[in-house]
Design brief:
Strand content: 35-45%
Order of helices and strands: HEEEEEEHEEEEEEEEEE
Helix content: 10-25%
Number of strands: 16
Radius of gyration: 22 Å
Structural class: mainly beta
Strand order of the largest sheet: 7-1-12-16
Shape: elongated
Length: about 240
């Protein structure tokens, strides 16, 4: 007669085998991430003399991953959150890196140069429907060292400014859900336009600083107000 302990162990083992088999034989696709600086193609219809286009736009990024569903609080609640990019600075470990290990990517460069820096490779992902792309700027958080950590640099030939961007992860939604079927190879391009990223004005009354993703730089009587550009995801099949 088989004891209860052996029965439980046997059932657990069979369950793990079943899970592994399901994982091995579940349909898979692949995805690679790229970035596109679309600033030079902007219509610039709302440019005024108070707007500056930065020539320096550097950001530290740890990872980019997909999410099929989020709850109201922005927490991943879907079936999978596959990474489609992990910075070489993370040394292959999304859990173990320190944010101080991350280095800048220079996003003011042309598309080829930006993607040469990123050097992304195709990553295997489950065949699912994905609604979101999430960009992780850092994972670890230490309130004592926060003011010393700088992860965004922006400016022009006249000045540069670095600051701590306190939002660890931003989420952007596909215009249409990304449907990945078994065998699909997908490229996810994150477009960004920083044409209007900096507003210059003499009066602090015209500067709003109530958003977490905004930064204020004061140089003499001028106030430079920087807003993080939006990364817009576009997906395409490449097989």
């Amino acid at each position: 007669m088989i004891s209860k302990k052996i029965s439980v162990a046997l059932i657990s083992a069979l369950f793990l085998v079943a899970l592994t088999a399901c994982s091995l034989f579940s349909p898979k696709g692949s995805a690679v991430v790229s970035f596109e600086n679309s600033s030079d193609r902007s219509s610039r219809t709302d440019i005024t003399e108070t707007h500056l286009t930065p020539t320096i736009f550097d950001v530290k990024i740890a990872a980019v991953y997909l999410s099929d569903e989020l709850d109201e609080g922005g927490t991943n609640v879907g079936e999978a959150t596959p990474m489609i990019y992990l910075s070489p600075d993370c040394d292959g470990d999304i859990e173990g890196y320190q944010k101080t290990d991350l280095t800048y990517f220079h996003f003011a460069a042309d598309q080829a140069s930006v993607n040469e820096q990123i050097n992304a490779h195709a990553e295997e992902i489950p065949a699912l429907t994905y609604n979101y792309v999430r960009i992780e700027f850092y994972k670890t958080y230490d309130a004592e060292t926060e003011p010393e950590y700088l992860n965004v640099k922006w400016g022009t030939a006249a000045f540069t400014h670095e600051f701590f961007y306190p939002t660890s992860t931003i989420t952007v939604e596909f215009d249409e859900p990304l449907v990945v079927e078994g065998g699909d190879a997908v490229r996810v391009t994150l477009e960004y336009d920083f044409t209007n990223a900096i507003t210059k004005n003499r009066s602090s009354d015209l500067i709003t600083d109530d958003e977490r993703n905004e930064d204020l730089y004061i140089d003499g009587s001028y106030y430079y107000h920087f807003v993080m550009p939006t990364f817009h995801p576009v997906a395409e099949l490449i097989n």
